[in-house]
Each structure stands twice: as C-alpha cells, then as structure tokens.
Design goal:
With 314 residues, this protein is an alpha/beta fold. The chain folds into three domains: 78 residues, ATPase, nucleotide binding domain (Nucleotidyltransferase, domain 5); 65 residues, Nucleotidyltransferase, domain 5, CATH 3.30.420; 115 residues, ATPase, nucleotide binding domain (Nucleotidyltransferase, domain 5, 2-Layer Sandwich), CATH 3.30.420. It has nine helices and 13 strands. Strand 1 and strand 2 form a beta hairpin.
Length: 314
C-alpha cells in the first residue's frame, strides 16, 4: 500500500510491530558506503488498543514524518515455493494466483499476491527457475491496514517476517556464500537460506525457546535433539536442492537465550553455527542497549522490517 507523505519526512524506514501486548518501533537508515544505523528502537505497552497506542505515538513520536512499514502476523499469509510459470512477465502473477488455489484456505480471486524470484545464479543447466508466492486473504491485509488508517498513520508497505529476517541475514553473509539463519523465539522457529542478499528458501518449525528452556530436563533434551535433527535435515535438503550455493555458516538468533545452544548445534552439524551479533555490520550509537546480542535477538524482526533495501517512496 502506497501513500503520500510530508516533505519533511525523515530518511529511512520506521517499522511498527505489535508484539505480545506491546508496540515496538524501529527506525533504520541505510546510506551508501556506511553501515545501516538504528536511529530509534523503543517499545510501548498497548494499554487499551493498538489503535489508541498508535494515536498516542503519532503525536508523541511524530510518526507522520516517517515512511512506515509493518509485518503481517504468522497466521495471516502464506509463502508457497513453485517453479516459475512459462508465461509472459505481465501474466505471471495471475498464473501463480491460480496455481496456489488448492494450497490456501481463502479465495484466491481477491487475494493479495506478490512474487519473489529465487535467484538462479550458478544454477545447473536444465533446472527450472523458482519463485516464492506470497499471498494473503484480502480481508487480512485490509484489517492490518485499517488499524493504521484509524490511527491516521499512513503505511507505505505491509511486509512479512521472512523478508524482515532476510534483510538481517543479508548483512551477515560471507562473499559468494550462502547463509542459513535460524531464529527461535517463544512462538517457534524460522530457518532461512539467503544468497547474494536474496531469499532462497524458508523452513518453519514449532520448536520454541519455551520448550528449550522448560523445567523438565528430559523434555528439554528431547526438544534439543529434535531441533538438531530438523537443522541437519534442512541443511541436507538445502544442499540437495541448491548444490550450487555453498553455505558458509548458520547464524543463530535465539530469544530468550538458550544456554550453549549455538555450541551444541555446531557440534552436530557440518556447517559452523555462530550466535548472531549485529555489532560488526550495523551501527546503533543512539541505542546502546543493542550492544547486547539478546536485545538484538528480541528486536530482530522490527530491525529487519526497517532494514528495507528499496528507497523510501516519494
């Protein structure tokens, strides 16, 4: 969704994310030749409603002076990986709309559809190019936008968590190498594969930090074993499907922290596992709390949503 903004708009993007009864704001500016900088990162309690919280912040934080973005919730959209259809570019979106008809639970006629190309750099001859189809029921997107419209905050973009995670992963890639990025929080896990800053594959799972930090030692051990197996299988699958992409490492972002998890995962995989630390790839002089990797992991999606590659719309 695109809107017209004030001429006094600030540089960069401002992400506004509702999370667990709070509203998180992250403002990130990307400038050529320098690290992306987190200018603002803050969280506010939603006391009455999200609309009321946004209305308060609209004035207190001058939200109309930013280009704003938000993310759809996990249950509000689908990401479907398919072969690219052999049709003209202008016909592709409609062809894919009908291709996912039996894969989603809502009518595709009015669904919101976007298409992400999976890069084919280095792909073996004869392999079909792939795409990711991002789809959402029209009513889900309208409901998300309506909250901001009621609060009189123009949204420039509605995005998804996979792309927010991709934006962070892209900063951590080694040159000409793929990066597996594993994010685990209290709601579950998401594993992404990126290459040259583009999203190649996504795997989701139910393993959460609540389970990994549970009070029952035997259960914690079983959950950890399951996570190791999921990671091993996913890496093997990536290697089979994308043998032209050498993966240099797995980056782990875990919130709340699970003691020694990166070490234990690394001992059981053929790819090194490193705990995420954004200090080497981002600047945050205005938010010193971000020197703490746990604070980074807690706010990963908000930071990633504000780390958009495209220019702020005029």
């Amino acid at each position: 969704m695109r809107s017209i903004f004030s001429a006094q708009r600030k540089l960069g993007w401002l992400a506004l994310l509702p999370q667990s009864g709070r509203l998180t704001l992250a403002h990130v500016v990307r400038s050529a030749g320098s690290r992306p900088e987190v200018k603002l990162l803050d969280s506010f309690a939603v006391e009455k409603s999200e609309v009321e919280a946004l209305q308060r912040l609209r004035v207190a934080r001058q939200l109309k002076s930013y280009a704003c973005t938000t993310l759809l919730g996990d249950a509000e959209y689908n990401v479907t990986q398919l072969d690219a259809p052999t049709v003209h570019v202008e016909e592709r979106k409609e062809a894919l709309r009908w291709a996912i008809k039996e894969m989603v639970s809502y009518p595709v006629e009015n669904a919101c559809i976007d298409v992400l190309d999976i890069p084919s750099i280095g792909m073996p001859p004869g392999r079909s190019a792939g795409v990711m189809v991002v789809s959402a029921a029209e009513k889900a997107v309208l409901a998300r936008v309506a909250v901001f419209e009621e609060a009189r905050i123009p949204l420039a973009v509605v995005d998804i968590p996979e792309l927010a995670q991709r934006n962070v992963a892209a900063l951590l890639e080694d040159e000409n190498r793929g990066l597996a990025f594993l994010r685990i929080d209290e709601g579950g896990m998401m594993l992404t594969l990126t290459f040259h800053g583009e999203l190649i594959a996504v795997r989701r799972g139910e393993t959460s930090t609540l389970q990994l930090n549970g009070s029952d030692a035997d259960q914690r051990s079983r959950v950890k074993e399951r996570l190791v197996l999921e990671l091993q299988r996913s890496l093997d699958n990536f290697d089979r499907q994308y043998s032209h992409i050498p993966i240099s490492k797995v980056v782990l972002a875990c919130y709340p922290d699970v003691e020694n998890l990166a070490v234990e995962l690394g001992e059981n995989t053929y790819v090194p596992v490193k705990a995420m630390d954004l200090s080497a790839v981002m600047s945050f002089p205005s938010v010193p709390e971000l020197k703490n990797p746990q604070f980074q992991a807690k706010n990963l999606l908000a930071i990633g949503a504000a780390l958009r590659f495209d220019e702020v719309p005029a």
